[in-house]
Amino acid sequence: MNKEIVVGFDVDGTLIDEKNNPIYRNINLLLDFHSRGCCVIVASGGGQSYTESIVNKLGLSDIVECFTKTNLPYMPDIWFDDQDCSIGSVNIRI
Ligand SMILES: [Mg+2]
Predict the structure, then answer these.
(1) 19 three-class SS
(2) For residue 52, how far is its CA from the centre of ligand 1 (angstroms)?
(3) Which of 39, 55, 78, 83 is most buried, judging by how many CB atoms fall within 10 Å of its CB?
(4) Do 15 and 27 touch, CB atoms closer than 8 A?
(5) Domain of 37: which CATH number?
(6) What is the reported pTM?
């Protein structure tokens, strides 16, 4: 039985830079996980609607679920973030 792997990404400093420009190397990583059949989520400390607005701008709203970082419904298997954190089972600082 295969369990779907959940991969999560932070927003600020991870998917967009300090000038709100997309960080394509990380967005491409997100797209790669999605194309491999992973469930991809995005979450920010700025809240769910902020997360949704950025995900929308990046054109990712059809393939990711958006959450507030402090209120995730489950622990992602892998979490990518520009800060050290312990959100996922495995946390990768990028
Ligand atoms: Mg960040």
Answers:
(1) coil
(2) 15
(3) 55
(4) yes
(5) 3.40.50.1000
(6) 0.96
